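Researcher: Structure for this, please.
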Amino acid sequence: MLKKTAKCIVVSCLFFSHSMFCMICDSQFFPFYPKPRTRITDKPSWFSVDPFFTRADSAYDDKENEILIPCLLGQYDQRKLGLALEKVGLDNPMPDAFMGFEAIWSIDQKIETGGVALSFEHMTFRPVAFGFTWLFMHANSRHFFCLTDPARLKLAGHIEELKDARLQMHKDLGLCEAYSSRSGMGDFDAYIRVGDIWDYPLRFRRVDAGFTVGMIFPGGKKREINSVTTVPFGGDGHWGAYFKGDLELELKEDIKAGFLMRFGKRFQKTKNMRLPVAGEHPLFGALVAPVCVDPGINFLFSGYASIENLRAGLGLRLGVNLCLQESSSFQDLRSDKEKDALPAKLNAYEDVSRWTSEHICLDVFYDFGKTAIDRGYKPIVTFSWDIPYMLFLSENVVRTHRISLGIEFNF
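Model: Predicted structure, token format:
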């Protein structure tokens, strides 16, 4: 019997789900994925506060290799950056002694954030509910430059001269220092859900199912083109919409499993971007020009299995999040005459715009009202850890760990 129940949990984890609030889950940098929320029949509305921390110092490339984060967009070759400066009409400060050599720097980037996520859902009348999710966070990001082959380059001159020339190139391009520290909001997600709870259908103790339509308002911090270490706090200024279906099954008392499937689309937007003109790293592109960006479709699968009330309200949950972002299109909006005079390649951005990510989520939660005679407003406290992993396919995505401590109130 126990073996049969275990099989049911695994199968249900792959094919079914329950109600989860949906954060901004289409970020290439942060795993703001859904967190399970079990609805309480006589208290279907809820509000939660989730303080969180994230940290990232590496990424997966398109061949599933672990690389440094800036390497997603290619190598930093100082010689090519000097040539790009010449093409846009600026002086090339590259020392003559290094002109015949490649000067490739590896860039180690670390991204650390701390913040709080808020979520709210209210059932106005059965079976219709409305809700929102929103976050505020502070992010620190830093670049560390290191020559990949300093021994070879020492034959051509002094390394310090090369470093000084690199700093001068960045100054000429108007780039800030290789460090950023900023605070702000994330995108705002508002939605309407139609769903209900049924007791004892199809041999299950309980079924919670629904369909959601949502809109994403771009209130999050955007990437700054003159500060290469900054990362967007959401969709980088793009409006968006999505729909999702969710289903939770209670297989037997205190044993639940399920899944969520979500399809989303960010809308096109025109913005200024740095463009490479001589094969330089795109984030350090010498040309700034208007580009129309049309993001691809985003798909999310989120499943889980949980055991509740192990001891007076204590529970455990194991979840998996699989996210796929289709390729975006980039259109250079300069005139044909300008593009002919100074061609720019957008393939570096296009190649990395398609990405997939996988995270395992471990949750330990305690429901203070689980065994109470009168539940009242007793909260549910959840400790979560989102762990990046490579099981199916992770590519062109930052490997970010996320730890959060959620407090949920039902009413």
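Researcher: Any notable elements?
Model: DSSP finds six helices and 20 strands in the chain. The mean pLDDT is 89.
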